[in-house]
Amino acid sequence: MAYRVLITDDSPAMRAFVRRVIELSGFELSACFEAGDGAEALDVLHKEWVDAILTDINMPGVDGEELLRRLAADESLRGIPAIVISTDATQSRISRLMALGARGYVTKPFRPEALRAELERTLGVPSE
Amino acid sequence: MNDTTVRDALSTAVSDVLESMFFLEALGEAPEPPPEAETVTALVTFDGDPPGSFYMRLASMAANSIAADFLGEDPGTLTEQQSTSVTLEMANMICGAVLSRIESSGSFRLGTPRIAAWDATAAETMQETRYTVDTGNGTLTVAIQMETRTCSPAERSAY
Lengths: 128, 159
Fold this sequence. Notes:
The complex is a heterodimer. By secondary structure, chain A is an alpha/beta fold. Chain A is 41% helix and 20% strand. Chain A has a five-stranded parallel β-sheet, with helices on both faces. In chain A, helix 2 runs parallel beside helix 3. Chain A starts with a strand and ends in a 5-residue tail after the last helix. Chain B has a single domain (3-26, 39-120, 127-149), classed as CheC-like (Chemotaxis protein chec, 3-Layer(aba) Sandwich). Chain B has helices spanning 3-22, 60-71, 80-102, 120-124, 153-157; strands at 39-47, 52-59, 109-110, 114-116, 130-134, 139-146. Chain B is globular and about 45 Å long. Classes of the chains: A alpha/beta, B alpha+beta.
């Protein structure tokens, strides 16, 4: 099965890297959308269906926390699992984001297999 | 928190980020490049307990080859914008990895990384909290400057 994923990060380099890592890990993508902040992500989500959202937290404009709040408040979007990718590995931050509705959390730096594993766990894909 | 703790956090964060995200093995501590060396410097300010600034100075040659590897691009076709974007992201990741180890409040917030001039005067004040490593293609120097608090966050928020 192939999946549709949205990557939200204000760094074009990080978006490109995440996409490359997912593809190289063998995780099958049928579509990969990109957004530079939470507002752009919501625009994409109102036009395209995705299976999962990968999002940074510290972004100018609508940041990752606000994106999680808006997803939770939107009946049509709240079912889409969001995985946070962040440099912040502090437990208080992780707990707060999970409470806001994040289904997964990957701390930068991460190994490619860790990102794939979190995607599979969040989407309920059986591990090979 | 003493300077040794900070230096340990810097060296561990650099190794972790280079290995995990850039598939590079740090080749050990190296002497700092001279001020006139061709380098690019990224600055990340942060809020936390304490707040401060993080500097990353990377040899230009290393910046280009690291960016090409990170993006899976040919170094010859890499644009300056792509190289800069990767350098800023690297600074963001190393800074976050350092702060996750040393911030006492258990929470911090990073500013948007930006390209800056290497401030030799500021660097002098960070003699004990900076670290230089050989990447194999040039040196990488990281330094952190933390503000001194005169009262605790709880005391501050009471006013």
